[in-house]
Amino acid sequence: MEIGPPLLEGSKKIMLMGSGELGKEMAIEAQRMGIEVIAVDRYDMAPAMHVAHRRYVINMLDGNAIKSLVRREGPDAIIAEIEAIDTGALTELEEEGFRVVPNARAVKVCMNRIELRRLAAERLQLPTTRYFFVEDVDDVRRVCKDLGFPCLLKPEMSSSGHGHVLVNNYDDAERGFKEALAHARGGGKRVVAEEYVKIGRELTVLTYRYSLNNNVVTATIPPIEHQRPEGVYHYIESWHPAMVSNGVVEKAREYAVRIVNELGGLGIYGVEILITKDGRVLFSEASPRPHDTGLVTLVSTNISEFQVHVRSALGLPTPEVRLVTPAAAHVILAETETWAPRITGLEEALKIPGVQVRLFGKPFTYRYRRMGIVLATGNTVQEAREKARSAASLIKVR
Ligand SMILES: Nc1ncnc2c1ncn2[C@@H]1O[C@H](COP(=O)(O)OP(=O)(O)OP(=O)(O)O)[C@@H](O)[C@H]1O
Ligand SMILES: [Mg+2]
């Protein structure tokens, strides 16, 4: 890939394809650097739109809508902030000379579990859970027997745990397969069946590629650890640094660098690593963008994952990201479905020293929608986690 010079000479413009909470923090970082921000999403007043120069509401699965908007606005970088984007349009735009961040292929591969597994497990030989790709119920029965019960089905394309189904026994296969397909994005017909492992710990290794004197350099941020109650897929809690041995950190970083270099482009990736109770370190998946568990870097590091992504997108370097304090983050979820939700408990939460709150400002809620995040620093990770947890429990969105 031709990298070229940094893009900051003259006024520059980024377009966020997806304007959620991650986009909002990227928009803020771009604004601070004098960059024009165009925020795009499928609904009006999405979080990043509050802090953008201009906003557009389009169906991002409609390739023509994306292409006409990009050609009209002519951004210097198109940042894919969500998965549900027409990747064919991104590929075409890239061929026309637009910079897609990190690149169109990475966006396409990372949203597809089958393509990503092929790349990570088959091409790069990274350790993963045992898996099979399945296309019908007979396949499911056969491979689940091999994987052992329960085994986990995931649609080829979906995010945030949608369509993850545990198959408990031989007779359960048909129900499981139907349910997984019912949640597949874009009417996908294939499913990944995975060995269901007992998870000890989960890490995110933020790994970024930036341009330095026309070369691409890959760097990692010390791993973040995160946790959600079993079967709950809304992101709950993360902390920084991860409380794992140096050996595990080394392995996790090695796997992250290998997959990210294979995916290429410029920008940050969130590489998800599972550590099983029996001590295996496994590559799970990668997001070609800042990661929700990486929101903790708004307080834990000298430079946040959002600033890293914006700098990398524009061809600028970030030679080192350092941990400055133990910190933790805890998500704030909506309780009910409503418009213009009321938020209570903020005053009590902010009485806790070291606590900050980011409310995303989403105009409507549904049950368990992510509405904000509590960030907390402490002398230890344990202290930060306790503060974040208690502050989050005080804040209600309904
Ligand atoms: N094979 C497995 N065995 C046990 N638990 C698993 C397995 N695969 C995934 N999980 C659990 O489910 C969570 C979500 O899985 P995964 O990251 O593949 O799905 P996702 O739809 O991309 O979710 P998200 O968008 O929240 O990352 C993991 O973080 C892990 O806690
Ligand atoms: Mg995941």
TrEMBL record:
Residues that hold N(1)-(5-phospho-beta-D-ribosyl)glycinamide according to the record: 21-22, 81, 292, 362, 369-370
InterPro entries xrefs: ATP-grasp, ATP-grasp_carboxylate-amine, ATP_grasp_subdomain_1, PreATP-grasp_dom_sf, PurT, PurT/PurK_preATP-grasp, PurT_C
> Could you give a single Gene Ontology term from the biological process aspect?
'de novo' IMP biosynthetic process
Catalytic activity of the protein: N(1)-(5-phospho-beta-D-ribosyl)glycinamide + formate + ATP = N(2)-formyl-N(1)-(5-phospho-beta-D-ribosyl)glycinamide + ADP + phosphate + H(+)
Q: Does Ligase appear among the keywords?
A: yes
* Amino-acid positions noted as binding ATP in the UniProt annotation, renumbered to this chain: 113, 154, 194-197, 202
The molecular function GO annotations come to: ATP binding; magnesium ion binding; phosphoribosylglycinamide formyltransferase 2 activity; phosphoribosylglycinamide formyltransferase activity
Its domain of life reads Archaea
Annotated residues for binding of Mg(2+): 272, 285
Q: Which GO terms describe its cellular component?
A: cytosol
Pathway field: Purine metabolism; IMP biosynthesis via de novo pathway; N(2)-formyl-N(1)-(5-phospho-D-ribosyl)glycinamide from N(1)-(5-phospho-D-ribosyl)glycinamide (formate route): step 1/1
Instruction: List residues of the ATP-grasp domain.
Output: 118-314
Q: Does the keyword Lyase apply?
A: no
Q: What are the entry keywords? A: ATP-binding, Ligase, Magnesium, Metal-binding, Nucleotide-binding, Purine biosynthesis
SUPFAM superfamilies in alphabetical order:
Glutathione synthetase ATP-binding domain-like, PreATP-grasp domain
The record's EC number reads: 6.3.1.21
Q: What does this protein do?
A: Involved in the de novo purine biosynthesis. Catalyzes the transfer of formate to 5-phospho-ribosyl-glycinamide (GAR), producing 5-phospho-ribosyl-N-formylglycinamide (FGAR). Formate is provided by PurU via hydrolysis of 10-formyl-tetrahydrofolate.
State the similarity comment.
Belongs to the PurK/PurT family.
Self-association and partners: Homodimer.
Q: What is this protein called?
A: Formate-dependent phosphoribosylglycinamide formyltransferase
